């Protein structure tokens, strides 16, 4: 029962803070709310006994990616961004997309036994060696995709540094 209450609380925190990410006018406030969202999601990972994903979420996303987001927010000239045209013409596309998504979720919830393929009882806890299993899968079965992703991230990081250096000069 305590796990269910904790899950509901973390889910509500994640949903509310995710809504606040996209509704705040100040980019720094949006980034802070994104940190809250990522912490709530990491708590949900911990409830699911996925300790490795919990640690990766905290270290990589909250610790690394959010620092990069804040640097970008600080480097972007906010005055120029405010004077640029808004995305007012995209409201019809956004409303149609939201309606389709709501219809799909509604259909899946209406036909929950066929649509979502939810287990009838809670899943068994993951084995104690889940971090070792993830490591073996990443570096044995999926070694090439992991290396390709690391090279792409390195190229993106070098490109961001070069672009930021040009702006500063």
Key descriptive features of the protein:
single chain; 169 residues; mainly alpha; Four Helix Bundle (Hemerythrin (Met), subunit A); 3 domains; 8 helices; globular
Question: What do you see in this structure?
Answer:
- This protein is mainly alpha-helical and about 170 residues long.
- The protein has 3 domains: about 1-85, NADH-ubiquinone/plastoquinone oxidoreductase chain 6, subunit NuoJ (Four Helix Bundle (Hemerythrin (Met), subunit A), Up-down Bundle); about 85-115; about 130-169.
- About 80% of the residues lie in helices and about 0% in strands.
- Helix 1 runs antiparallel to helix 2 (about 25-45) and helix 2 runs antiparallel to helix 3 (about 50-75).
Given helix and strand content, the structural type is: mainly alpha
Order of helices and strands: HHHHHHHH
CATH superfamily of the largest domain: NADH-ubiquinone/plastoquinone oxidoreductase chain 6, subunit NuoJ
Secondary structure: number of strands: 0
N-C termini distance: 58 Å
Task: Please give the share of residues in helix.
Answer: over 70%
Number of helices: 8
Using only CA atoms, what is the Rg? 20 Å
Main sheet specs: none
Identify the CATH class of the largest domain: Mainly Alpha
Tally of domains: 3
Proportion of residues in extended strands = under 5%
Low-pLDDT parts are none
CATH architecture call of the largest domain: Up-down Bundle
Q: What gross morphology would you assign?
A: globular
At the third CATH level, what is the topology name of the largest domain? Four Helix Bundle (Hemerythrin (Met), subunit A)
Residue-averaged pLDDT: 80
């Amino acid at each position: 029962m305590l796990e269910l209450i904790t899950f509901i609380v973390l889910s509500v925190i994640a949903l509310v803070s995710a809504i606040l990410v996209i509704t705040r006018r100040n980019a720094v406030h949006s980034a802070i709310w994104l940190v809250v969202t990522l912490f709530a999601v990491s708590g949900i990972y911990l409830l699911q006994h996925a300790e490795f994903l919990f640690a990766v979420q905290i270290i990589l996303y909250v610790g690394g990616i959010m620092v990069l987001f804040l640097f970008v927010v600080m480097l972007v000239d906010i005055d120029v961004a405010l004077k640029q045209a808004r995305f007012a013409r995209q409201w019809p596309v956004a409303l149609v997309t939201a309606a389709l998504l709501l219809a799909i979720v509604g259909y899946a919830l209406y036909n929950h036994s066929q649509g979502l393929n939810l287990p009838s009882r809670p899943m068994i806890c993951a084995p104690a060696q889940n971090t070792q299993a993830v490591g073996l899968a990443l570096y044995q079965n999926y070694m090439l995709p992991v290396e390709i992703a690391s090279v792409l991230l390195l190229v993106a990081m070098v490109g961001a540094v070069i672009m930021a250096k040009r702006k500063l000069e």
